[in-house]
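Structure ticket #2291
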Amino acid sequence: MKKLHYNSPVILTFFLVSLTALLLGLATGGWTNTHLFSVYRSPMTPLFFVRLFGHVLGHAGWDHFMGNMLLLLVVGPPMEEKYGSKTLLVGILLTAVISGALQCLFFPGTLLLGASGIVFMLIMLSSLAGMKNGSVPITLILVALLYMGKEVYAALFVQSNVANFMHLVGGACGTAFGFLVARKKL
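Resolution: structure written out below.
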């Protein structure tokens, strides 16, 4: 019998903590989502800083969770293998803080929760995986055009509860982070 291998500690832990946050949200009628796993403009108490990082763990329901986690589990492990657990964790934390701070700045009356910014950071990071000698991979350009174009269109012309601006922020974070990490390795 083969034993199980916890092959991607950051991504798997992120998944498990997000699942726990979802279950807590369901069990408390959304109280934990509002008070722990959403970010919004509020006084800078210690709880604000928990939400600044923790909003990427919360999800509005099973569909929201499944959509983000399926992509996270497909794209995340190869990125963790390529860049390392510590580097990927830094990328996730930076993306969470940047997207949370921008949410508070530009959309003060709106709650933000969910891992889609992290997922889009990973998608853009993965499109940089083939970068060699400082060259720009064509996959990066195509993914950026298709993804960014779709998100800009949705932000301008589609009314929904989707935080398209934060998807763009996540994608920008992934691109910037990928170039920074690649520059250090060259």
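Closing remark: The chain has eight helices and no strands.
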